[in-house]
Each structure stands twice: as C-alpha cells, then as structure tokens.
Amino acid sequence: xxxxxxxxxxxxxxxxxxxxxxxxxxxxxxxxxxxxxxxxxxxxxxxxxxxxxxxxxxxxxxxxxxxxxxxxxxxxxxxxxxxxxxxxxxxxxxxxxxxxxxxxxxxxxxxxxxxxxxxxxxxxxxxxxxxxxxxxxxxxxxxxxxxxxxxxxxxxxxxxxxxxxxxxxxxxxxxxxxxxxxxxxxxxxxxxxxxxxxxxxxxxxxxxxxxxxxxxxxxxxxxxxxxxxxxxxxxxxxxxxxxxxxxxxxxxxxxxxxxxxxxxxxxxxxxxxxxxxxxxxxxxxxxxxxxxxxxxxxxxxxxxxxxxxxxxxxxxxxxxxxxxxxxxxxxxxxxxxxxxxxxxxxxx
Amino acid sequence: xxxxxxxxxxxxxxxxxxxxxxxxxxxxxxxxxxxxxxxxxxxxxxxxxxxxxxxxxxxxxxxxxxxxxxxxxxxxxxxxxxxxxxxxxxxxxxxxxxxxxxxxxxxxxxxxxxxxxxxxxxxxxxxxxxxxxxxxxxxxxxxxxxxxxxxxxxxxxxxxxxxxxxxxxxxxxxxxxxxxxxxxxxxxxxxxxxxxxxxxxxxxxxxxxxxxxxxxxxxxxxxxxxxxxxxxxxxxxxxxxxxxxxxxxxxxxxxxxxxxxxxxxxxxxxxxxxxxxxxxxxxxxxxxxxxxxxxxxxxxxxxxxxxxxxxxxxxxxxxx
Lengths: 348, 320
Description:
- Chain B: It is found in: Cell membrane.
- Chain B: It is a multi-pass membrane protein.
- The complex is a heterodimer.
- Chain A has 15 helices and no strands.
- Chain A is mainly α.
- In chain A, helix 1 (about 1-30) crosses helix 15, helix 4 packs across helix 12 and helix 5 (about 105-135) packs antiparallel against helix 6 (about 135-160).
- Chain A is globular and about 65 Å long.
- Chain B has one domain: ABC transporter involved in vitamin B12 uptake, BtuC (Orthogonal Bundle).
- Helix content of chain B is about 70%, strand content about 0%.
- Chain B has eleven helices and no strands.
- The longest helix of chain B has about 55 residues, at about 40-95.
- Chain B is globular and about 65 Å long.
- The relative contact order of chain B is 0.21.
C-alpha cells in the first residue's frame, strides 16, 4: 500500500520532468539555449519578490477554477461551464463593488458573496436540467458560457456604463488589494485573494472527505444507481454539486474583479480561466491539495513564460510543455507499468 | 421583402456558419461511436486551421488560386489525423483518461500552432491568406427555380461537401460491415472481441478519422471565415461541434441537423439588420439566441440521449 502511494506521488513528478525535458529538446531543436530558456522561466516566476507576487496573483483564480471543475468531477459531472461562471461572478462582484458605498467589513464580503451566488445560479441551471430532465450537462454548460459572455458584455456596455468599454473601478472598500502586500511585493498586482483560495481548498477537502453530505456527493459520483438504492437523493446531490462548483467558479471571477483588475471590461473572448481550470483539476487528480499544487505549477509556468523572450524563446513554448505534462499524467498507466517493471528487476 | 428574398438572405449564411461544425461534429460521432471520448475536437480544429492557413500561404504560388485551398484542407486533414494519433495512443494503448488526453490535445494544438507561427512569422498571427474559398453558384443545381437561388447560388462548395459527407458517414456507420464493427466496439468491446473484431484497430481508425474530419472543419473555418491563424481563430467552435454531436444523439444526420441549427442561429445576429422583424430586437438577444434555444430545445422536446455504452472506458483484454 505504501509503495502504491509512493508511485501515485511519483507519477506527476515524473510527468513534470518529462514535460520539461521535452521542452528542452524543443528549445535545442529550434536553436535556442535551453539552459538560458529555463533560467528565464524560473526568474520570470520566482526571480524576485515582484515576480513572486505576480505568480501568486495568477495562481489565485486557478485554484478557484480548478476546485470548481474538480468538485463537479467528484460527483461525476463534467462542468465545462466554469468559464461562464467566472464571467458572471466577475460581473456580479464588480457591480456590487461599483454600485454601493459601504464600510469595508460589509462591502467586501457582500461583493464576494454576490460573485459566489451569481456563479452558483449559473451552475444551478445545468444541475437542475441534468437532475430533472437528464439533459447532458456538457452541452448546457458550453451554451451557458457563451450566454454569460454576451450578457455580461451587454450589461457592462448598456446598463452599468453608458456605452463604455469598461466599468468604473470598484470603491476601495470592496477591493481585495492591500497596501501592505503591494509594498511588500514591490507593487505587483498580488492581492489578498490567495488566502480565500486556500480556505476554499480546505473547505472542499473537509466537505467532501469529512461530512455526510460530502460522502453522498462522492457516492453519487462513483455509482448513481447504488447511491439511489442506498436511499440517497441523487437528483438533489447533482444539483448541489453543480451549485457549489458554480460558486467556486464565481469566486474565481471575484478574484479578477475585486483583486487583479478592480473593474470589468467588455470581453472580446473568453477569459480562459475556466478552461485552464479543467487542466488544473485533471492535473491535480480532482483533489483539493492536488488542485492547489497544480494551480501553483500552472500559474508559475504561465507567469514565468512571459520572461522567456529574454532568452529569445517564444512564450508559447510553455503551452506545449503544459500540454505534454497533462498527457504524461493522463498516461500514468504506462509510467506505472514501467516503474513496476523496474522494481521487479531490482527484486530479482 | 417577400418570403423568397428573406430565405435567400437567411439560408446561405446559415449554411456558411454550419459547415465547419458539421465536419467536426461528424468526426466526434466517429470517435465516440467507437467508444473514445473526444473532448479534443477543439484542438483538432486548431491544428487544421493552423496547417490549412500556413500551407495556403506557403504554396499559393505552386498550386494557384483555385487549387490551393483544396490542397490546403486536404493536407490539414491528414496532419490533424496524425495529430489525433497522439490521442489514440494515449487513450487506447496507454489507457489514459480520455477526457484528460482530449484536454491535453486542445492545449497542445494551440501551443504548437502559436509557437510555430511565432517562429516562422515572428508575430502573434499569420498574414491573411491570398487564396481562400470564394462563394460560387453551383452549376446546373443553381438554375433550378426557387430552390436554386436559395440553396445553390452564392454558396460554398465546402458546405455541400459537408452535407454529402454527413450522408456518406451515415451510410458507412449504419449500412456497412465496417460501421457495424465500429458501433460494436463502442457498445460492447468484449463481445466484439470474441467475434474476432480487432477492438484496438477499430478505435485507432475511428480516432484518426475524427482527426481527419476535425482538420477539415478547422481548415475550412480558417479559409472561409477567419482568413488567418491566431490565438483566437478557433475559440470554442470545437466545443460547439461537441455539443452538436451530443445534441444529435451521436447520429451523423442528427449531428448535421444540430450543426445546421447552430449555424442558422448564429447567422441571425449577422443578418438581423436586413430582416424587417428582427431589426428592432436588441443585439444581445440575437447573440444569445443560439445557445438559449439549444438549451430550451434539449430541455423541451429532445430529452435525454444515451451515449455509446463503452464510451470512456479503455478496453483491457481479458477483464470483465
């Protein structure tokens, strides 16, 4: 058993290494200096306190969107709609942030709650349709992504502003930015959201692993028929899973609206936070801790990549590396097979 | 504006938007009928669009204005088929989680495409292609009264290729031994295996065919609608094709119907200015119409659809 656990831990690490090696091979193949490339990548993510701040800022929404996808997955649902939930959450948070003038202790929680509720509603729709009418959640969530995008753009342009391209900035009482953090990280865009993200991860772990409700959700994910036979309300659990998943997605939007940007502009396309969340969740094995680690990896690579042109390497290389890491993790079977063969040889 | 004129305004753009989705959704049908989930349709379209555009730019002098787009989509289709091989190896041979592998395909296609564009063109997007597809009147058919002007004039040959292929694939899947085998490995691979069908081979063929079709869809999108390749050339069309496939209940003609419906709904917001009763509708309603109508249609009268039974599970010989 303990060696099994060891291998489970080893597979993602080997995948990461293989991905980086593949990246190095590509760099060499195109005539770049791979050592310089990786040095630039590292410095871009962790080179000094400013870059660390930027990296943490990037990780924050990834944790939320990864948790959103993972939570639904654990109940056997594929929520491709996190993207849309991010957009409605972002919009709701900014709207509350702009429209009211309240003391911070009320305003900030209100704005965050608005984002969570907006996302939850956006998750409730596919949950309800899936539970009551057996409509495939994948289609409904894809459709709701576009719906969210167009409605949000319409509201920003015609309701919150007068034909403007972005809302006003939120009042400081609704902002997640902190003067202290900004000064500490040499004026990076890092904000307090990371604390909320970590709390959310702990919440997900506790809720799924330690409560009765969480047990039911996981049971439904494993086998709907058995859960039903055991007396669980499958329909209610499906809806609940999508609502919580959607709330996480909405909070990812709040991180952008209340933290990174402080406003919402008309979006020409998707934010990709939700789609990247799919990769984060899968990379993290759909567990809370895994999501935090995967979001960390993903965020560092994304931010670090921006510094790679220093070594002449196109930033897009990182997308290839990320994709290959996902491939290798997915193909864990072959890595396990290889490891067990090596072990057998050692025993001989 | 009379009814005929209105149909002439509405139908061609609907077909135009639907064509790439039809190709890609058909690819999805082939793959999933064999039991392999294909979330990677988006990535296969990206690869197709990338290859189609780059080949078109590079070889326009060799093949001339008329043949370049056709050769481009063919090359794109073959490259995407090879690219889909990655998904096949991971999900069939390495028994990877098919959803994860598909997501990786999406990331990888975009990464490779943008990396090479940066490498070859030194910027974030390619130049505009010189030899895209142009609208044409289809000979003979376009001179049929009433139907001719609505369906066959001012249209693209590729659109009709899509519709013909949908029918061909329907015939292949439901009327040939090959199709029966394809469906059987997707429903009950063990039973198929006992009857001597090579499950792994069938699934490899199906996934590569889905790559071929996705490549056609992506390159035709690029050479009729987008005209260049950048990070946003393909943004969500693959997922729309996925939705069309599920909407069409994993049936080639159903997927085509769903894609035509999406195409029609998408064209509404483009042509609304010229249609009298749509002129006063706020733009946002027309923009969200395709998506909301799809949800309503699914909830209202299409109801549930069952995926192929063995979808998503790798076939392991000897296991029950």
